[in-house]
Fold:
Amino acid sequence: MIAPARASWLLFAMMAGAAALAWAIAPTARMADARGKFVLEEAIPAAFGEWRINPLVAPLTVSPDVQAELDKIYDQILSRTYVNGKGDVVMLSIAYGGTQNRSMQVHRPEVCYPAQGFRIEGAEKGSLRANGRDLPVMRLLARQGPRTEPITYWIRIGDQVVRGNIELGLARLAYGLGGRVPDGMLVRISTISRDVDRAYEVQNAFVASLLDALPPHTRALLIGASS
Structure:
């Protein structure tokens, strides 16, 4: 039997060794540093294709306490409303964090909309065709009283676009094992419409037009270099 004192020292040595190993393999290379500085307000155009900023309609706002938490988590948040010549209105929200971690989920529609009194329905994985590729996205409905808001969103972590917590966790783990700390961006597009199918068609067209209008380095901010 190992003496208590010796057992204590052995346990201490094992804990110290584990801590040292964790420190040694902890990712240190921040992908955000390699991207260089950017400002979302300047990077995302106010007009592109048939779309223009609509100053008369404001995107979904959050309560002051929720906004305070978001300001702590994200480096930049952009919220705009666009309109085209047909009168279609699309709300765009982008949240960027230089160090991607579990806090990114705070801004996901499944979390932030219920916090504002909405009910979430029909969340499912999907894809849309944009810029010559199939972009993986999440689709869901937010309802509050008579308001029906179809939503499309995706999360870019490092150079990958992911859907759901499992894909997000696996991507974060893969980057960590490779010694890199990924940055992250959540892009959300929504419209207020009871015609859900048409709303998603409008959102698809909006995303395709936006990505086609962006230079490669800005496009990579939204959908990653390898998407």
The radius of gyration is 21 Å. The CA atoms of residues 60 and 73 lie 19 Å apart. Helices lie at 4-25, 31-35, 40-43, 64-73, 109-115, 164-177, 196-213, 216-223.
